[in-house]
Amino acid sequence: MARGNEADAYWSIFGYLVSGLLFWGGVGYFAARFFDKPYLTLIGLLVGITGAIYLIWLRFGRQ
Amino acid sequence: MINLHFSGEGFVPPSTNDFNLPPIFENIAWLTKPVLLVFLSVILVSLFFVISARKAAVVPSKLQFAGESIYAFVRNDLARDVIGHDFMRFVPYLFTLFTFVLTNNIFGIVPFLQFPAMSHVGFPYVLALFSFFVFHYVGIRKQGLGKYLKDIAFMPGVPKAVYILLTPIEIATFFLVRPLTLSLRLFANMFAGHLLLLVFIMGGEYMLHDSHLIMKIFAPFSFTFGIALTFFEFMVQCLQAYIFTLLTALYIAGALADEH
Amino acid sequence: MEGTLNLVGFGLSAIGPAIATGMIFAAYINGVARQPEARSVLQPIAFLGFALAEALALFGLVLAFVL
């Protein structure tokens, strides 16, 4: 069981990071297009990556 | 974005166009080489296991032993170790998935066939879609629709305001990124592997036909490296079939677990 | 031949996270091999380190396409 859980963890971490960047980065991208302020994309990406790392900490980091 | 353009005479490197094969018969548009290979793989896999299991004996023949060891590998190492109790329900699906993907991958290095069907992204998409429906269906059947979705969307032990940040990420992970990465991993590995072999074999052929003597001398090195990479590709192909099945089993196990 | 220079830059920048991931897991395997009962302590640290290194690599990938 332990081996399976560990392999699951690596791909889960990767999946969380990708989806955090995709979702909040996408929101930021369209906000930047809509309001015509390019820096909103970067803010969206940073929010997404923060959320993803927080989620990873909640799931795998705390004992 | 800075775009680069190089142009020159000589060697044309293999590109994505090498994967768009023409139809075998002029008037049947859908019957291309990958489709034919998929049909061939279905026939081969069924024939092999029907023949190996037909004369099942206590003292197995060589063929029966081969068939049974593949089955035992999927049942014990993939299904039982990962899913745990009540794993027998999923063995037929996992076994079919593993043998089908493995056979199609290995077609990439079998002489004269030499095309991995999974390097066309449509095939892995469909396989990942099957896995997607299987693990969500199993989870919903086990826990009920409401509880299953609530377990996915809301991580326990977080202040309520943070859910605005986290819930979209969780939902995107489970319903979009998981099937997408499952299929793209298989596709990208097969695509890149086939392209790599094409580069070395076609490059070697070009060097052999070049007029300079020094190019002719170095051509065998390109071929040798191509052959070495073929063995490397064999390893990658087996590994990718294993990983595809392992991740499906892991997702099923995750959907069956009470808390995720 | 055509392409974009962004992807070359991403390829170069991916070297850093690759080395980082390798070092994290080398240290993790070393620690667990020397002291197997420390696994439960080391595992979350290794996962978090992996997540941070991986985040930088993916961030670079996204920026290579966005910029």
UniProtKB/TrEMBL annotation, chain A:
Record key words, sorted: Membrane, Transmembrane, Transmembrane helix
Bilayer-spanning residue ranges: 9-32, 38-58
Protein name: Unannotated protein
From TrEMBL, chain B:
UniProt entry tagged with the keyword Flavoprotein: no
Record membrane topology: Multi-pass membrane protein
Compartment(s) of residence: Membrane
GO cellular component annotations of the record: proton-transporting ATP synthase complex
Name this protein carries in UniProt: Unannotated protein
Annotated InterPro entries: ATP_synth_F0_asu (IPR000568), ATP_synth_F0_asu_AS (IPR023011), ATP_synth_F0_asu_bact/mt (IPR045083), F0_ATP_A_sf (IPR035908)
Family classification: Belongs to the ATPase A chain family.
Organism classification: unclassified sequences, metagenomes, ecological metagenomes
Keyword annotations of the record: ATP synthesis, CF(0), Hydrogen ion transport, Ion transport, Membrane, Transmembrane, Transmembrane helix, Transport
Main location (coarse class): membrane
Transmembrane segments: 35-53, 90-110, 122-140, 161-180, 186-206, 213-233, 239-257
Keyword Cell inner membrane: no
A GO term for molecular function: proton-transporting ATP synthase activity, rotational mechanism
Pfam family, one: ATP-synt_A
TrEMBL record, chain C:
DNA-binding in keyword set: no
Gene Ontology biological process terms in this record: proton motive force-driven ATP synthesis
Transmembrane residue ranges: 12-33, 45-66
Cross-referenced InterPro entries: ATP_synth_csu_bac/chlpt, ATP_synth_F0_csu, ATP_synth_F0_csu_DDCD_BS, ATP_synth_F0_csu_sf, ATPase_proteolipid_c-like_dom, F/V-ATP_Csub_sf
Subcellular location per the Swiss-Prot or TrEMBL entry: Membrane
Keywords of this entry: ATP synthesis, CF(0), Hydrogen ion transport, Ion transport, Lipid-binding, Membrane, Transmembrane, Transmembrane helix, Transport
An MF annotation (GO) of this entry: proton transmembrane transporter activity
GO cellular component term, pick one: proton-transporting ATP synthase complex
UniProt membrane topology term: Multi-pass membrane protein
Matches recorded under Pfam families: ATP-synt_C
Sequence similarity: Belongs to the ATPase C chain family.
Free-text function comment from the UniProt entry: F(1)F(0) ATP synthase produces ATP from ADP in the presence of a proton or sodium gradient. F-type ATPases consist of two structural domains, F(1) containing the extramembraneous catalytic core and F(0) containing the membrane proton channel, linked together by a central stalk and a peripheral stalk. During catalysis, ATP synthesis in the catalytic domain of F(1) is coupled via a rotary mechanism of the central stalk subunits to proton translocation.
Protein name: Unannotated protein
Taxonomy of the source species: unclassified sequences, metagenomes, ecological metagenomes
